[in-house]
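Hi all, long-time lurker, first post. I run a small reading group and we've been trying to get comfortable going from sequence to structure in the token notation. Rather than ask abstract questions, I figured I'd post a concrete chain and ask someone more experienced to write out its structure so we can walk through it together at our next meeting. Sequence below, copied exactly:
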Amino acid sequence: MSAHEDSDSAAARAQQAEIAQRLRKRDDFAQPLRTVAGFDARFDDEGRIARIARVATVLLDADTLEVLDERVVEVAVATIGLDAPDLFGVRALPALCEALARLPRRPDLAFVAGHGIAHPRRLGIAAHFGIAADLPSIGVADAALLGTAASLHEIRGAHTPLRDQGEHVGWLLRSAPGREALVVSPGHRVSMTAAAQLVMRYVTTGRLPEPIRLAARLAAARDAPGDPANRDA
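-- Answer (accepted) --
Happy to help. Here is the structure in token form:
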């Protein structure tokens, strides 16, 4: 990494730490929920300076899980100096905000593939997006960036605190027996307790909560030849 790239990374991390001070870690979402959405952000390699951020998003009725809208948004973003895993939210934020703007209505709650506060500066992609959009959000990830946790029971819904330097930053959550645990952490305007409860509320037959499962499926379909997905360039 060049000195310029290193400087960009340091500046981005300093900005993350500053933005994280604005997190609201209590429940502040519509009750009852009317709509929820899943967001899955990925990148296409288009050179080191600019890359394509692709966000698949699915809007659902919060009770019936009927799909109200689904689309894939692609945005060219500058990523030089921002390739580290802990800066993923910085890279993806413009595309996430654009995807939200393209939905026919704002969801009451966003499930984001990635981390909430379970992040070195407590500002993973779900937390950063939540603050930027002033949107209640929860992060759901496959693996932890940091922290330690006790062993987890195999029963469905079992969860144990994920701690970093003594601070409770998320949960390891067994959403399905015999499957790897999810890393769940609140993003913005959602409490620690509610984050785990809400994820389990929307886990149906699989491992992932339905909003993220459907968004990930849409993202995968977009990568396949002949994809019929609704693409917003």
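A couple of things your group might point at:
The chain has one domain: 3-225.
Confidence is low (pLDDT under 50) at residues 225-233.
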